[in-house]
Each structure stands twice: as C-alpha cells, then as structure tokens.
C-alpha cells in the first residue's frame, strides 16, 4: 500500500481526466453514471473517489455525495468541492451503517486490491451499505491495458516493461518495481468476466458489464482532436454506447464498469 500511496501523492489524479484517453474515460464514465444512478437528490457514497472528479459533478447535479479515499491529500481536495463531504477510509471497512445510502461507487478501489479476498470484502461492504434495490457501480482495469498502452507509447522497448506485462497477462497482478516507477503503480487487472463473478460472490445482482473507452482509447492526438470538437465528442460517445456491452469487445477497453444492485430481498 505504501507504493500505491506514494504514486497518488504525486498529484496526477487532479489532471488525469483532462486530455486524451483520460478525457474519454471521464466523459464515458459520467455518461454511464448518468444512465444508471438514481435521479437527484440521492445519497451517493463515492468509495475511492480520489480528488472528487465524479463526486463534484454529482453534487453539482443535486446529489448528496460523501467521498471516502485512503489518500489524505485526495480527501483534502475533495472536501473543498461544493456539496461534497470527504473522509479518509478503506473500501474494505466502511463506517457507514447498513442500508444507509442510495448508491455506491467503487471507481478506484478494485484497481489496488491485489487479493481476491480483499476485493470480495470491498464488494461486500458496498452491498451492506446500499439500500435494497440500490445500484453499485464499480470500475476495473482490463487485463490487457498495459500491453496495448505499451504498444502505443513504445514502452515495449524496455525489457522491464515486457516482463511486467508478461506477469500481468499471466496472473492479473501488475507490479511496477522498476527504478523510477515511471509506469502505473501496483494494481490488479481484471479479465472481462471477473468483476461480475466477484460481485455475485458478494451477493450482488449483476445487471451489465460495460466497456468505458472501448477500442478507441489508444488513438492519441487524434482522440484529442475528436473530443475537442463538440460534434466529434458526441459522435464518439454515441458510437461507443452502441457497443459498450458487446462481449467480444470488452477486453479491448482500458476500463470496464460493472453495474450491479443489491437485491430487493
């Protein structure tokens, strides 16, 4: 956990969703949230919400949002957002009472819980605190994200990167142990079928698994051009909605969102 905290204390979460694939991730995640969360005002628990990129947007839309994150620097930034409360916490042991919120977001924790038992605990805590029938939306990183990103960015010329990717493909565990730590920090990268299986093990009912960026996220500068133009951005979002649940394309997306809910009984 120390390596993960060190990575996030660099402050990259403040700007990560501002351009390129990050911008597409943010636009698509907001699009998915808008279609699957209750209408405002709802009480939303944003677990692992970092600096509040989604919490602030949801609060501005009229929701009551509380953010929990293990990185104090993230919590300080999020707590300053209008309409957002925030506290340091752990997805595996939430302080919220049973059935106390209308919806739960897990848009970060499952990345960094390397053991399945820990991910199961995070899913279980989301199930516990959400009201019956309430949605739980969880983001995961694709097993193949580093391989594809490495091709686009030329990282595969470094034998350390190739070895890291080989381990990730074999086990799902992504460990950045090289000098300088220039790549993503320690994480677990899911195969497309894994998040739904984990959610069901915790007792949630799974509605859909959606590709966030689809297969277009490695387009680089071309992606920035498309998203900078309102008509281009609309076209990208419209087309990706059409194939967001296509099973044969899920693994090509950098991120997936699993949409689940607590059974009513």
Automatic annotation (TrEMBL):
Q: Which Pfam families match?
A: Methyltransf_25 (PF13649)
InterPro entries of this UniProt entry? Methyltransf_25, SAM-dependent_MTases_sf
Q: Which parts of the sequence belong to the Methyltransferase domain?
A: 44-134
**Superkingdom of this entry's organism?**
Bacteria
CDD domains attached to this UniProt entry: AdoMet_MTases (cd02440)
Signal peptide as annotated in the record? none
What's the protein here called?
A: Methyltransferase domain-containing protein
Identify the species of origin. Answer: Actinocatenispora thailandica
Write the lineage as a comma-separated list.
Answer: Bacteria, Bacillati, Actinomycetota, Actinomycetes, Micromonosporales
